[in-house]
Amino acid sequence: MTEAMQTLATLITSRRTVRQTENTPIPLETIYKILEQAAYAPFHSEVEPWAVKIASTEQEKKFFFQCVFNSYERIGIFESHTDEKKEKVRESYREYFEGTPISMLIATDVFDHEKKDFEAVGATCAFIQNIQLLCWEQNIGAVWRTNPYIFDAEFTKEIGFRSNQKIVGSLHLGYPQQVPKAKERRALDQWVSSIQVGAK
Ligand SMILES: Cc1cc2nc3c(=O)[nH]c(=O)nc-3n(C[C@H](O)[C@H](O)[C@H](O)COP(=O)(O)O)c2cc1C
Predict the structure, then answer these.
(1) How far is it, in rounded angstroms, from Cα 29 to Cα 38?
(2) 182 Cα to the center of ligand 1, angstroms
(3) Is the CB of residue 108 less than 8 Å from the CB of residue 123?
(4) Rounded to the nearest whole angstrom, what is the distance from the C-alpha of residue 147 to the centroid of ligand 1?
(5) Who's near 183: CB < 8 A, 6+ residues apart?
(6) CATH superfamily, domain at 8-190
(7) Among 51, 151, 158, 187, which one is least packed by beta carbons within 10 Å?
(8) What is the mean pLDDT of the chain?
(9) Is the pTM of this model over 0.90?
(10) Which helix H or strand E contains 194, and what residues bound it?
(11) Which pLDDT score, from 0 to 100, does residue 1 have?
(12) pLDDT of residue 3
């Protein structure tokens, strides 16, 4: 095994989803460099299918939070909440969005074609994991989220994506405050087996 391969294996196995971060700013140049490198993920469309929207300034984070909150009102997340509970949730979301150094939304192209759409999501997930690993390499924590607002077409439009793009996830980045313990992975023999010749 080469040294580079060992480094990659360590990077993959040591990376953890980080949900609690410092609010120390992360230079945007660092993030742009990471995105440039992450874009070497494989893809099977004519051009890379992914697109990214970043919230790094106070104004951008406020707008992102407001769009999320509008979406949650629209799709009925707060239907069973009292006004008091809704205000509490609103405040905790506001704190989260405004306190996270960098948030980004990652979308993929939609082709309205089963195989092409499958490939586009696959490629975009590879791209997202590249971002997580490249962040981890620089001690930047990331959480990949699939909260309900990403499935809201009105939110997708409001945040600036085209109608032929859909959001695959959000990433929230910051220097780790707390790194959780690894979730144990299943033993190989529970999910790997040789192809059963003539199984049918
Ligand atoms: C497609 C996808 C969606 C995820 N969505 C969320 C989410 O909405 N909220 C969250 O806290 N973590 C989310 N995660 C992070 C997982 O919970 C995390 O990867 C998992 O617990 C394993 O932990 P590890 O990344 O530290 O190995 C998501 C991960 C993936 C791959």
Answers:
(1) 14
(2) 12
(3) yes
(4) 11
(5) none
(6) NADH Oxidase (3.40.109.10)
(7) 187
(8) 96
(9) yes
(10) none
(11) 63
(12) 74
